């Protein structure tokens, strides 16, 4: 990635109408529509946003953060109404959304069929993480872009979450097109994440909404999962983690007639024509394009019913690290 992007810092108050008809607002909307990264304020911490329906734009988020692996990202939306196009709300999710949105709550829900959120944003899970932040500027941005905005905290991987525009500039200058700086965030710690995908809600990450408030609204206790950046979900507690049914064979230079081929680059193994199905992550060897197509590729080969997926070598540079990390985990022996 080019880390010498000119970063425009736009200092503005989060209260309308200061920004509503400003040239900077229009520019931020245009940048997001064009697949660029914009750092945005929320009430919790600053986020590093891209159009959540644009896989290649979202791949840039991982590059800019220097994340060695694909963690799933939260999609930010302007209101409860629009979130319903992307997730399936059960009674608990409905109650929580009604009580705490807009606000520092993220709901992890089963993905609704037809949602255009990129599979890279879900990192191959069958769920989506949705949030309606309280920032009026953020709501207006998502509305004007017309798509959800995928945004992790706007810090480099391993650094602490940014709560001022200056924190963001420190980590992200040269890596993002614009930083929207509305001053210190009001909450200063990340959103509370609750998964509502089974019979009982699960607290995945404590945050801006205290557990007692959740319990009061739900009318019952809430189970806790240990969650951190390395383990976004507690094994066994969320059953939706996607792993291909087919076995995975890595770094292949040939492919069998019973296999599917996950290809990379313009030249395929000589016997590729005899295999069951080919999915090329990027014919032009572009790692960003490959990242954006990885989960769709695994799914599509798996759905074709092959027993084994042969994967061509993928260079370990840039996003290749995260792609290879994910493939290595998918190829590990099953329990
Ligand atoms: O307050 C916040 O939540 C901030 C602002 C910018 O919205 N965002 C934030 O994002 O903290 P991030 O990427 O730093 O943390 C998101 C957490 C990660 O631990 C991720 O694994 C989890 O949410 N997550 C996202 N989607 C998930 C999913 N489908 N299932 C389980 N966990 C998920
Ligand atoms: Mg973070």
Description:
This protein has helices spanning 23-33, 55-65, 80-83, 91-100, 119-122, 136-145, 165-172, 211-218, 287-303, 320-331; strands spanning 8-11, 38-40, 47-51, 74-76, 105-110, 127-131, 149-150, 178-181, 192-195, 202-205, 223-224, 247-249, 259-263, 277-280, 308-311. The chain has 335 residues and is of the alpha/beta class. The strands form two sheets. An eleven-stranded mixed β-sheet has the order 1-8-2-3-7-4-6-5-9-10-11, with helices on both faces. It has a four-stranded parallel β-sheet with strand order 12-15-13-14, covered by helices on one side. Mean pLDDT is 92; it is low at 227-241. Bound molecules: threonylcarbamoyladenylate (TXA) and magnesium ion (MG). Magnesium ion binds next to loops.
Short note summarizing the structure:
With 335 residues, the chain is an alpha/beta fold.
